Amino acid sequence: MELTNHKGAVFMTTGEKIKYFRNMRGISQETLGQLSGINSATIKKYEYGIRNPKPDQLLKIANALGISINIFMDFDIETVSDVLSLLFKLDDQIDMKFEADKDDEGNFKPATVKLSFKNNLINKKLCTYIKALEIRENMLKAKDDYSEEEYADSLQHINENIEEIKQHLLDDNMVVKKGTDRLTVKNYPN
Fold it and tell me: Is the pTM of this model over 0.70?
């Protein structure tokens, strides 16, 4: 079952994510079962939400699909500490760039803070995501131009497209860890 948040963003269940990436790879439940060492009937139960995989099973599935197990994780970010700890972790492990304009006294202006990555592929993928968000923002601004039903249908379609774009953008195993200076792809064990 897809869930939505207060902004209408679509969240996929773990089973839906398994099915999505399995279909993206063009493999059957049986093949995923063979690749992961998990019975295909169990894969089916995961996809239908009858059962939830334990972390070790989820790791086997992620490895079989060639994706990061982090795709299946939902981070509960509520506090400033939560946000900053994630940013600091990212900065420790990959090349990030923090920028801000300064005022006349040489102090950084908080409203001008920008984050980017030194890896152009990440920035390019983020630009694709930003474009999708811009389309949704334009739809929200144009609410009065549509009937209530047209608006709801269009917004739902846009949110589904954003979720699909996010999933496609996540499908990349290029290593970007600090110290990696050439094209490297992470291989997941079978």
Answer: no
